[in-house]
Amino acid sequence: MLAFAVGLAGCDSTDSNNTNSEARLSLAFTTTTSATAALTARSTTLSDSGNNELTIDRVQLAISELELDRSDDDGNDDNGERDDIERGPMVIDLPLAGEGPVTFAGGIVEAGSWDELEFEIDRLERDDDDEARVLDEANFPEDTSIRVEGTYTLAGGEAQPFVFTTDLEAEQELEFEPPVTVSPESEEQITLSVRLNDWFRQSDGTLINPDDANAGGAFEDNVEDRIQDSIDYEEDDDDSDDDDDDS
Known about the structure:
Layout: E1 6-7, E2 22-32, E3 38-40, E4 43-47, E5 53-70, E6 84-87, E7 90-93, E8 102-110, E9 112-121, H1 129-138, E10 146-153, E11 160-166, E12 170-182, E13 187-195, H2 220-228, E14 231-234, H3 240-246
Parallel strand pairs: 1-8, 2-13
Antiparallel strand pairs: 2-8, 3-4, 4-5, 5-6, 5-7, 5-9, 5-10, 9-12, 10-11, 13-14
């Protein structure tokens, strides 16, 4: 599994003028599915009331920009304070089959409260040197923001392989309520949850053949809208694993 990791601390993390306490913060993705989803080795299989099945073997997500904002950000950067953090581009393999969260960014940040994360789901292009490097490292197609591999099985039929790609460009803004507080010298993780179960479905729950959601397909706009609405902040608590199992 590939997770193109970047540091949050930035090159000025050892600034001698920075007297504020620091903490380590990581960002991670997890996925949730329905309670009826079948989880096998490295795959997730979804079904609908018509006995159609969709097996997802791999999901890659491209992000071009990442910004984490402090609750007390006043727009200044005095005394070496890092009020927001920007990183990218990156390509992330989302966890499947009940795997734990995948960390995609992490580093040293100012201790305190953080209340918003912004990032862009964006297609990567070779005319940008950084994006070209990431495309090569991830073996990811150009002008693509999301790539999904798997099989779709119409009720009573045979499994047909598919590759779904989209050039979706969407800014995601996730507010943390309450804000995420990191104490000096602590280690905290912010987990983003992707409702993978929602991506390839019609409004009545019927599964969509991902081939019909590729460029020019009948369900292209439907799936892109559902992808944008599927990412949430997952509040950390002791029962999170149990909650995911029941979702």
